[in-house]
TrEMBL record:
Name of one Pfam family that matches: GSCFA
InterPro entries: GSCFA
Domain GSCFA: 21-257
Name the record gives this protein: GSCFA domain-containing protein
């Protein structure tokens, strides 16, 4: 008897290995995936402009990068003792205007090269609900806790999301024609929008992606949302807020992702890297004891072997 509904996932024709360069953009689930790549020491960049939830804002920041449209003073504003930008997350905000602009534009420069070099870009959409700043009526990536009366809330149509998806891919392919795109919908439920409204939002994202991806040969869809809803449909897989997947769920979704999108040849290296990571966090009973010194010597040999084979890998010892 089957007590679960496991979702079949096809293996990628262009899988990721330790020579791949991966960029992960989008919602907080993009961070979860990015952290896994970082833990296993793949070459990866995650959300350099912070968490961005909606497809239009992701398209806007990708356009800035690809077209090298640097930020100017008109693109930022001062509020609550810090300078902010509607196109990026609050974590980048800064009390000094010049430092803020400089750091944003340095990110554009670095991300331009990283998109050129990228072999795989993972984009995680979180919601179809957007906020438009009333004065310019532009979709914002972050409201930065400004008064709600300054914004209109809007649900992106399926057509608008499709346009954002196609534009994002077209922009990236201008500078990285061989890059593989992996799209997914975040399994995090945005209940602040309402229960029915969250389902509507996710439905718009899923519909737009499934109507767009078949037309794009270098793009794939990974069903992280479906895995959470249909395979892991139990509250024991949720964090205490009952909205975010807990670590067990994240680990499980990552396992399915790795099986579909990472080369089987990379698994042995991943296993060695994981062993090293765990060993680096090992706390001995006797730091000066003979057994621990032997353990440290063997650990350094493992680290040297991995770093020699893959020069981009560095462990913090």
């Amino acid at each position: 008897m089957q007590f679960r509904t496991q979702i079949p996932i096809s293996r990628s024709n262009q899988p990721i290995d330790y020579n791949s360069k991966v960029v992960s953009l989008g919602s907080c689930f993009a961070v979860n995936i990015g952290e896994k790549f970082q833990y296993y020491k793949f070459q990866t960049t995650t959300n350099p402009f912070g968490i961005i939830f909606n497809p239009v804002s992701i398209e806007k920041i990708v356009r800035r990068i690809v077209e090298k449209r640097f930020f100017i003073e008109d693109d930022i504003f001062f509020f609550n003792d810090r300078w902010h930008c509607f196109e990026v997350h609050s974590e980048l905000s800064h009390p000094n205007k010049e430092v803020f602009l400089s750091s944003l534009n340095e990110l554009i420069d670095s991300m331009y090269q990283q998109l050129i070099d990228s072999t795989h870009i993972i984009i995680t959409y979180g919601t179809s609900w957007v906020y438009r700043e009333k004065e310019q009526y532009e979709v914002v990536a972050n409201c930065h806790k400004l008064p709600q009366k300054q914004f209109d809330k809007d649900l992106l149509s399926i057509e608008a999301i499709e346009k954002a998806i196609h534009n994002t891919i077209d922009l990236i392919q201008k500078i990285s024609s061989n890059c593989n795109m992996i799209f997914t919908v975040s399994p995090v439920r945005h209940i602040k929008d309402g229960f029915v409204e969250n389902q509507l939002s996710k439905a718009h994202l899923i519909t737009a992606l499934h109507s767009s991806i078949p037309q794009l040969p270098t793009s794939n869809y990974f069903p992280s949302y479906e895995i959470m809803m249909d395979d892991l449909r139990d509250y024991r897989f949720y964090a205490p807020d009952m909205l975010h997947p807990n670590q067990t769920a994240i680990d499980y979704i990552w396992k399915l992702f790795a099986e579909a999108y990472i080369t089987s040849e990379s698994f042995s290296t991943m296993s060695v890297v994981e062993n090293i990571q765990r060993s680096l966090h090992h706390r001995p009973f006797n730091e000066n004891g003979e057994e621990h010194q032997k353990f440290l010597s063997q650990l350094q040999d493992k680290i040297k072997n991995v770093e020699t084979k893959f020069p981009h890998i560095r462990f913090h010892t």
